[in-house]
């Protein structure tokens, strides 16, 4: 990797995080405006909102990375004791739980108490998703999407857009839930 590409990649990451912070701050403000009932075009964002939103985005990314690390560790621990047929369902369930668990953590931090109801709802959603994908995946297999050359070429971009959508929607709901 040359010095020029390092500078370009770090600049792109900084621009991405800045856009994520600005967007999260605006979506949080729009959630607050929806909560209080004033028009969304009155939302103004200052440097303190950007810093808070950027911290929110970076901390959630860290929670995602830690959760996936724990998921991989659990996967290797379970792999030694389970059959492959059972393991694929368990792995799918753990992946779904780890995808939704930051929502429980974030709302638990906002309310300063663990939300057991939301945790059980997420377990139920993860179970339904796992059962649906396990038994009905033959109708539309996921492997067909990963075999598309366009998806393989733009995989990193698709993941980053997914992060943006996730954080923007989550910031909006945080603004509505706890303004």
Mean pLDDT: 76
Instruction: Give the overall silhouette.
Output: globular
Summarize the helix and strand pattern as letters: HHHHHHH
Helical fraction equals over 70%
Number of extended strands: 0
Which structural class do you get from the secondary structure elements? mainly alpha
* Total domains: 3
The biggest sheet, with number of strands, parallel, antiparallel or mixed sense and barrel status, is: none
- Taking all Cα atoms into account, the compactness measure Rg is 19 Å
Strand content bin:
under 5%
Number of helices: 7
Low-confidence stretches: none
End-to-end separation in angstroms reads 44 Å
What's the layout of helices and strands?
Elements: H1 3-36, H2 47-79, H3 84-111, H4 116-136, H5 143-146, H6 149-153, H7 155-177
Helix pairs in contact: 1-2, 1-7, 2-3, 3-4
